[in-house]
Structures are given as C-alpha cells and as structure tokens.
Specification:
5-stranded antiparallel beta sheet, alpha+beta, Outer membrane efflux proteins (OEP), single chain
Length: about 500
C-alpha cells in the first residue's frame, strides 16, 4: 500500500472510531398491571394466607406437599423421560449455540487456500509453451469493527432468546408435571368411585335378596323384584364403565412419564385429602415465580434488540481486509523471501437508496416489539386470573365439601328409614330405590368434590410457578459457557 493509501485508511478509521455510537433503544422492563393483594384470598383464613417467611414458599419438588410416594415416583419419571421436555431442552441448547455463533462476529475471519496450478499457453508462432506451475499458500483475514453495535445487538438478541427458551423449558416441565398430578388424582378418584360402587352393589344385592324373600312370602310384588334387580344391573354397568376412564388416565400418565402404556400399572388407591395448605405469597412476587412470564419478558427484550439491529441498517459498514502468503513457480523457491506477497486495506459500504426497504424493516421490528409487549402484559393478567380462579375454587369447594358431607349423612339415614318402612309394608320399593339413588349420587358427588379440590390445589401451585424463580434463568455468562443456570429439578 502506498503512503497516501495508508494515510487515507488511517483517516477513515479515526473518523469511524470518533463517530461510533451505540445504536438501538435502551431496554427497560415494561410496566405491567399489578394488584396489592389477591381478591379471592379468604380473609382471616390461615390455610392460604400470603406467606412472608421464605420458609413457607413452594419448593422445587412441589408435588411432595401431597405426601404420596406413588405421585413422587411418577413426577420424577416426568423429569427424566418426558419426550416433550427433552424437545424443549434441545431447543434451549439450539438457542444457546446461536449465541456462540453471533459472538464470533466480534472477531476476524481468517482463512487459507493453498493451491497448485499447471498451465500452458499458446505462442504467437502457433506453437505452445512449456507447462508452467504455480505454487501458492495464501492467507486472508477480514474483520468488521462493531462501530454501530450490530454484533453487540445480535448477541443481546440471541442471549435473550436463549433465556426465553430456558423459561419455556421450565414452563413445559411445570405443565407436564401438572398434567401427571391432575391425571393421578383423577385416577384415584375413579378408584374411590369404583370402591363406592362395589359397596353399593353389595348393598343392592342384599336389598334384592330381601325383596325376593318378601315376594316368596307373598308380601312383595313381582314389580318390586324387577325394580330391585334393575337397580343392581344398572349399578354394575356404571361400575364397569369406570374401568374405561381409569385405563385412559393410566395410559395418559404412562405417556407423560415417557413409557408405553403397557409398561405402567398403577395400583388402586385413595386420595389422601383434603388438599394441603398452599403458601400463596404476594402478588408482586408472581412475575418472578412464573417461567412463562419470564420467557415472555425475555422475548420482549430480544425484540427490543431487533429494533436496534434494524436501525443499524442506516449506517455504513467498514471492513478491514488483509491477505498475504507465498507464491512461486517452483517448489524449491516457494519458501524464499522474494516469494512473499501481501495486501491490506479498508472498505466501506453504504446503502444510498433502497426505496423504503430499511424503513419498512424498522417498522416491522417495532410492530413485533409492540406485539410481544402486549403478549407479555396479557400473560401477567392471565397469571393473576389463574391464581384468583384457583383460590376461589379451593375456598368454595371446601364449603361445598362440608355441605355435601352433611347431605351424605342425611341420605344414609333416609335409606335406613325407607328400608324399615318398606319392611313394615308402609312404603313401596320405589321409595327405597329413590332414596338409595340419592345416597349414591351424594357419595359420588362428595368424591368428585374431593378430586376437584386436589386438582385446584395442583392448579394453584402451577399458577404460582411451582416453586420456580426468575433467578434460575441462566445469565449471559452461563449461556456463553454452556451452563443452563439452575433449573428446577
């Protein structure tokens, strides 16, 4: 390079260094709707009061609050073998690799292309020249200084997307853990109803035998016998129908735990209710406890960086290039000093007219940011709704369970009284059937309410984030070095 060229390159570099700036809007976490307290938290109720000591917060293995070894084993299997969680984890590793790829933009690109070529040319006399060879070992390097923050913004964007992917991973883990718990309590509810129907069928068979004996004694009619037998057969059919639901719940749990349905058999059991107390915490903590909200917020930050990337298109690009190596027509002289060659120099490229393309791309990035911001705020509102819904469900289902228990006891007394009246010839067997049907309905309703209370407790834990915290998201250094932060086990 000539003296003039070197001075020109230096002047360009100085000019760009002195005018370089950080392009792109500064990111601040968006404001979201907030409430000082949960509306549906029962006043003066110690069971779901807001927990202030951190000892009362939900832990990572939240399912252990139900004190069920079978559920614990199933939840551990979800963490290990659920294929959807594995997919989300692979997506996180993919987004983490993109950060490393973008960080490479901070450094020059260096390449080499050794070669050997043979050539023969025609002479003016019509003859051909001898074959000539050319041996070369060139090395080249190019680098784009990050004057306008293109690389910085691309790294920020990729890092924030990786963090969002980590939040999505933890949210998927929580949702599949929730599905297992809900299906498990549905299965136990089915077991309890099966046991209830077994006991009911036994009682109905005794009533049928009583009716047959009364018919043989000339006291009861054939219609009473038919009604009693119909009641037994109908209840047996209901009992068989429950097998369908139980099998499907068991199959669903098997798939959620990453195994074929044929490989899993869950023994019959009962719900160890009522649901345990769930520490709710303060509404201001909810944003830090929900992985889906954390993922949505990181998505907003990533799209904020994309707005900055769109703005950098208005600025020129400086590329510093250099090449050198050795070249010779003879291998014996290839490594001698005169065989060397080199070149170096900067180049600047700038789009002068694009007929609105850059402006449209910037508007597109800004619109995407606005959309993600609305999604984030909506996810916060949805989170508050889910907490309030399940708080109210637990509160009112508890009252409903108490009232239903009274109804069950009254129905049992009614059945006993009607049987006595039937034996005494005061009432027909139809009255016995009616009261027995009411008793069975009340008992099954009581079991269903218990199952709904357990499901509401699981859903409340899920709505509160399942013991997760935004501090578990991997930071930029952890993503850079391949660490996944401290995800919930």
């Amino acid at each position: 390079m000539s003296e003039v060229g070197r001075k020109g390159a230096a002047a360009i570099a100085v000019l760009l260094l002195t005018t370089a700036c950080n392009v792109g809007p500064r990111y601040n976490r968006p404001l979201t709707p907030m409430t000082p307290a949960y509306k549906e938290l029962p006043p003066g109720d110690d069971q779901w009061k807001a927990s202030t000591p951190r000892d009362g917060e939900i832990k990572g293995k939240w399912w252990e609050i139900f004190n069920d070894p079978q559920l614990n084993a199933l939840e551990e299997a979800v963490n290990i073998s659920n294929q959807n969680i594995k997919q989300a984890e692979a997506n996180f590793r993919q987004s983490r690799a993109l950060v490393a790829a973008n960080r490479a933009g901070y450094y020059p690109t260096i390449g080499a292309s050794p070669g050997i070529s043979n050539s023969r040319s025609a002479l003016a006399t019509g003859k051909t020249s001898a074959i000539s060879s050319l041996f070369s070992i060139p090395v080249s390097a190019s680098w784009e200084p990050d004057f306008w923050g293109r690389v910085r913004l691309s790294v920020e964007n990729a890092t924030e997307l990786a963090q969002a992917s980590a939040g999505t991973l933890e949210n998927a883990r929580l949702l599949y853990q929730t599905d297992v718990a809900v299906d498990y309590f549905e299965l136990l509810s089915t077991d309890m109803q099966e046991k209830l129907l077994d006991d009911t069928i036994e009682a109905y068979e005794k009533a049928l035998q009583l009716t047959v004996n009364r018919f043989n004694g000339g006291v009861a009619s054939q219609a009473d016998v038919s009604q009693a037998r119909t009641q037994v057969d109908t209840t047996r059919a209901e009992r068989i129908d429950l097998n369908v639901a139980r099998a499907q719940y068991e199959h669903a749990i098997a798939v959620l735990t990453g195994q074929p349905p044929a490989n899993l058999t869950i023994p019959t059991g009962t719900i160890k209710g009522p649901p345990p107390p769930v520490p709710v915490g303060l509404p201001s903590q909810l944003l830090e406890r929900r992985p889906d909200i954390a993922a949505a917020e990181r998505q907003v930050a990533a799209l904020n960086a994309e707005v900055g990337l769109a703005e950098t298109a208005y600025y020129p690009t400086l590329t510093l290039s250099a090449s050198g190596g050795i070249e010779s027509s003879a291998l014996t002289t290839l490594f001698r000093w005169p065989s060397r060659f080199w070149s170096v120099g900067p180049s600047i490229s700038q789009t002068l007219f694009d007929f609105g393309k850059r402006r449209a791309q910037l508007q597109q990035a800004e619109a995407a940011y606005d959309a993600s911001l609305a999604t984030y705020r909506q996810s916060v509102l949805t989170a508050f709704q889910e907490v309030e819904d399940n708080l109210s469900a637990l509160h009112y289902l508890e009252k409903e369970a108490a009232q239903e228990d009274i109804a069950v006891q009254e129905a049992k007394r009614s059945v006993a009284l009607e049987l006595d009246r039937y034996k005494g010839g005061v009432d027909s067997y139809l009255n016995v059937i009616t009261t027995q049907t009411i008793e069975l309905t009340d008992e099954r309703t009581y079991v269903t309410i218990l199952q709904r209370r357990m499901t509401a407790a699981v859903s409340l834990i899920t709505a509160l984030g399942g013991g997760w915290n935004a501090a578990n998201l991997p930071n930029a250094d952890q993503i850079r070095h391949g660490a996944a932060g401290n995800p919930t086990p």
